[in-house]
Amino acid sequence: MKVMNHTEEQQTENKTSLSNGAKRNRIFIYIAIAGVIAAVITAAFTGYYLHQERAEEKKQEELLKAEKAKRQKEKKAKTTETAEQKLERVRSQAEEQGVPQSVIELLDKNAETVDFVADYEKKKDKPYADTIEEDLSNGEIPELLQWDERWGYAPYGTGIVATSGCGPTCMAMVAAGLNQDASITPAKVAAYGTEHGYVDEENNTYWRFMDEAGANWNLNSVGGMLSEEQVSAELAQGHPVICSMGPGDFTQIGHFIVLTGYENGTVTVNDPFSIKNTNTAWTFANIKDQIKAMWTFSKK
Q1: Which of 187, 236, 253, 258 could be cross-linked to 151 through a Cys-Cys bond (beta carbons 3.0 to 4.6 Å apart)?
Q2: How many structural domains does the chain have?
Q3: What's the average model confidence in pLDDT over 224-246?
């Protein structure tokens, strides 16, 4: 058996110590390498996700810019288009949307209806107004339009108030004015007319509606043609006169209007289909031959 002397033992211990130190160094190196790799991977993933996030943000910014540019372009187009161009644009859009032909035809009858036609798809199913609100002035017969978006989309017969509801709209003006009741709207009067059979299969209002329906709103109705002197006298007493008009200044076929005032041969007219006609001073002598029937209304 070999016996190691002191020098050999010391050398062996030194070798063992060096071997252990090398192992520790290698371990430290491995750990350092692993840390570097982990840092590189983390940095890579972080960079990737930051890149993706920035790319998504940039994409959203570009989409927002494109949408803003589109809105500005549309706004510019609308502000620069002529009335005729707007009319044709709305007509084309309405045809594409499948808007009823009777509604589209409003554009040919009166260009004032352009916004009503444009909003048809968006607003046709919305609830109708319960009142005529600020349109009712103390002691006055209100000026109402059958194609007002507050009630113009409401049904009348098999159509809507805007296209064939001049009769109910005239009655609403008279009933709301004489009763000073803002709750009487064209939509409600049209519903009454339809329910009680005052509208024919072509959505024309029967004349008997003017004879009979006023009683539902506590009104007297007296039918019969009036001379200019009689018209002046009735209007002076605050009795509005609904007229059924034939072809002429107000219609090509048939239409109802309301006479609300008279002065020196001139009558004020509430035309439910035309703002322009309502704002025009009419010489009674010039329109009297277009009148086919008249009904004078007063409160019971």
Answers
A1: 187
A2: 2
A3: 98
Query: Tokens 């035809």 label which residue?
Result: 105
E strand or H helix that includes residue 221: strand 219-223
The 3-state DSSP class for residue 30 equals helix
The reply to whether 128 and 257 lie within a common domain is yes
In a domain, 83, yes or no: no
Residues 42 and 140 reside in one and the same domain: no
Confidence label for 28 from pLDDT (cuts 50, 70 and 90): low
Nearest to 231 by CA among 255, 205, 257: 257
- Integer Cα distance of 4 and 55 in angstroms: 73
In a domain? residue 128: yes
> Per-residue confidence at 2, pLDDT binned at 50, 70, 90?
very low
Q: Which domain holds residue 37?
A: 24-51
Q: From CA 129, how far away is CA 116, in angstroms rounded?
A: 15
Tell me the pLDDT tens digit for each residue of 109-142.
999 999 999 999 999 999 999 999 889 988 899 9
Q: What pLDDT sits at residue 21?
A: 62
Q: Are 295 and 225 in contact (CB under 8 A)?
A: no
Q: Which tokens belong to 85?
A: 């161009």
Q: Residue 14: its pLDDT value, please?
A: 52
Spell out the alpha helix ranges (H) of 81-119: 83-97, 101-104, 106-109, 114-118
